[in-house]
Amino acid sequence: MPELDAVTQARHARDIEDMAIGLISALLDVAEESVSVEVVLELPELVAEVWQEASALHERALADERRSSALRRQVVRELLTSSGLSQKDTAQLLGLSSQRVQQLAHQ
């Protein structure tokens, strides 16, 4: 804490607030209940950039998965209705189980 020209340390990030409050309380000789601190943790810039990229890729993967699922349902329904294939034939044609074809048809 630069304002008090003092330092402390904590083993875990979750302990930082308590350690800071204890230090301030001891240095200023005030009750811990009267001390308020705001702890701000920041990722290193490179780590933050990588995390952002990973998050963007994750969101894109989720969107791709939703689109893939919609297209699979569309194909199954098309084969079952317009093409008149049976559930078993549709499953064999698509390399799926009959149960999966049924699930896709009814989603």
What can you tell me about this protein's structure?
- With 107 residues, this protein is mainly alpha-helical.
- It is 61% helix and 0% strand.
- It has four helices and no strands.
- The protein has helices spanning 16-28, 45-80, 87-94, 98-105.
- The longest helix is centred in the middle third of the chain and has 36 residues, at 45-80.
- The chain starts with 15 loop residues before the first helix and ends with a helix.
Please give the number of β-strands: 0
User: What integer value in Å does the Rg equal?
Assistant: 29 Å
Roughly what is the average pLDDT, rounded to an integer? 94
Q: Overall 3D geometry?
A: rod-shaped
Helix content: 55-70%
Distance between the termini: 58 Å
User: Helical segment tally?
Assistant: 4
Helix-and-strand structural type: mainly alpha
Weakly predicted, low-confidence segments: none
Instruction: Write the H/E string, N to C.
Output: HHHH
The profile of the biggest β sheet is: none
Strand content: under 5%
Using brief descriptors, characterize the structure shown.
mainly alpha; 0% strand; 107 residues; rod-shaped
Please write out the topology.
Layout: H1 16-28, H2 45-80, H3 87-94, H4 98-105
Helix pairs in contact: 3-4
